[in-house]
Fold:
Amino acid sequence: MSERSFVMIKPDGVAGGLTGEIISRIERRGLEVVGLKKLSVSREAAEAHYAEHSDKPFFGELVDFITSGPVVMMAVDGRGAIGALRTMMGATNPLNAAPGTVRGDFALDVGQNIIHGSDGEESAARELALHFSEL
Ligand code: DAT
Ligand code: MG
Structure:
C-alpha cells in the first residue's frame, strides 16, 4: 500500500554533506520525494515535533540539537514507505545500527544520529501536518 512518511536530515547530516547521499538512497530504493525543503527549525516546532519525548532526560539536548543548524525535510511516498525508511535509517543508537543503514554507515552517537523518519502511520500524519501543511 502506498504510504507517505516524513523524513528529516538532522543538522549533523546536513553539515556533514550527506543530503545528496541520503536523497539518493531514498530515490534508488524506488521511493518518491514529493516534498523537499531546507530550513532552520524553530524551537516551537522542535518541541512539538518531539512532544512524545518531553518527559525524557535528553529532551532539552534533543531540542537544542535539532535547532542548532539547517535541516532538510522531505515528504516521501511509496509502497510501505514508512517501514522501508525506518529500515534504511537503522537503529536509533548508531552503535546498534547495521552497516548499510544511514546511521550504521555515518554515525556513532545516539544524540547525533543524522536522520529522523516517522515510526508509524499516526506519527507520519502528525509530522506531515506539522512540517508540510502546504502539501
Ligand atoms: P528514532 O529517532 O529512532 O525514532 P526515538 O524516537 O526513540 O528514536 O528518539 C528520538 C531521538 O531522540 C533519537 O533519534 C535521538 C534521541 N535519543 C533517543 N534516545 C536517546 C538517549 N538515550 N540519549 C540521547 N538521545 C536520545
Ligand atoms: Mg522516533
Observations:
- The beta strands are 2-9, 32-39, 71-79, 115-117.
- The CA atoms of residues 16 and 125 lie 29 Å apart.
